[in-house]
Design goal:
The chain has one domain: Up-down Bundle (Rhomboid-like fold), CATH 1.20.1540. 65% of the residues lie in helices and 3% in strands. The protein is mainly alpha-helical. It comes from Pleomassaria siparia CBS 279.74.
């Protein structure tokens, strides 16, 4: 019986999709899960996009505070466009989170900072859903941190990583025929983060104004106290 159980556990542990899912860092895993769940619930008519979008008046005058989070989860109905967004979300979110040492504190602070700026910008540009904007922020930051990485787009165009946000911007413009405001705002927020974390510190004796505060690090990275014998 023990051998049978061990074999069953090995089989379950070797399931490629499950292994890929649990190998993702925690913040990326939960964000991707929330994004897919939101689209499935909308597709099944359990939720409506009108319950998920961000509106300053709806949030702060009608106290529907969940919209501060759900606006980052919904990327549209189940479609090829959704798969396109999910691919870029999990890929570059994962790469950035892993490069931060798989630290939930540092990467979640980046998400909190970027989300707050995007929420402030949304009413100005009439943006209801901010998932694509936040994804563009992460893509921009990753691309600037990896300037020598060569990428290929659709197997037709080869370029260095810093051009990736602009290639995707051009692709969105070609597909939809309008300038994607959400991606533009994401690039702006990404540049602010990149400047104050990678450009500003070497010029000011290593001072990084956007590092997470100590209480935030303690909240996410605290370790259980050792058990006394």
């Amino acid at each position: 019986m023990a051998n049978v159980l061990a074999g069953g556990e090995a089989l379950m542990g070797g399931f490629p999709l499950e292994q890929w899912f649990f190998e993702m860092p925690v913040c990326t895993r939960w964000w991707m899960t929330a994004a897919l769940s939101a689209s499935v619930l909308v597709q099944c008519h359990i939720l409506s996009p009108f319950q998920l979008f961000y509106s300053f008046r709806t949030v702060f005058y009608r106290s529907q505070y969940w919209r501060l989070a759900t606006t980052f989860f919904y990327f549209g109905p189940l479609s090829l466009d959704l798969l396109y967004h999910i691919f870029f979300l999990q890929r570059y979110s994962r790469l950035l989170e892993e490069s931060s040492g798989r630290s939930p504190a540092h990467f979640s602070w980046l998400l909190a900072f970027a989300s707050t700026l995007l929420l402030c910008m949304a009413p100005i540009f009439s943006m209801a859903f901010l998932g694509s904007a936040l994804s563009s922020t992460l893509i921009y930051i990753w691309s600037r941190k990896n300037p020598d990485t060569l990428l290929s787009f659709l197997g037709l165009l080869t370029f260095r990583a810093p051009y990736l946000p602009w290639v995707l911007l051009g692709f969105s413009l070609l597909m939809h025929g309008t300038v994607p405001k959400d991606e533009m705002c994401g690039i702006v927020v990404g540049h602010i983060w990149y400047f104050f974390n990678d450009v500003y510190p070497p010029l000011h004796n290593g001072h990084s104004p956007l590092d997470p505060p100590a209480w935030w690090i303690h909240l996410f990275d605290r370790r259980p106290a050792p058990v006394e014998e």
